[in-house]
Amino acid sequence: MHRLVNILALTALVITLGAGLWQDWGLFTTMKRMILSYLGFFFLGGILTLAVVSVPLFENNTSEIVEKTKDKSKEAA
To answer: How far is residue 43's CA from residue 60's CA, in Å, rounded to a whole number?
Structure first.
């Protein structure tokens, strides 16, 4: 997942570089926008990855809880 986020951020960086060359921005402006686009996509992708990974933690799986308690009661007996 980390690799996908990194590739997405690098793609945003390259697209920003292409836009800077095409529109004839200055060097400082292009570099600033490239850094901002990379960091923005990287952090946004990281936050979305955490959201996707944490979804199973919030699911209500009562059947698994019941099975675990049955297994513990069998071990105690």
So the answer is: 29
Placement of tokens 């919030």 in the chain: 58
Residue 75 identity (one-letter amino acid)? E
The predicted model scores a pTM of 0.67
Using DSSP's 3-state secondary structure scheme, residue 21 falls into helix
Q: What is the pLDDT of residues 28-67, one digit of tens each?
A: 999 999 999 999 999 999 999 898 888 877 777 666 656 6
Residues with Cβ within 8 Å of residue 37, at least 6 apart in sequence: 9, 12, 13, 15, 16
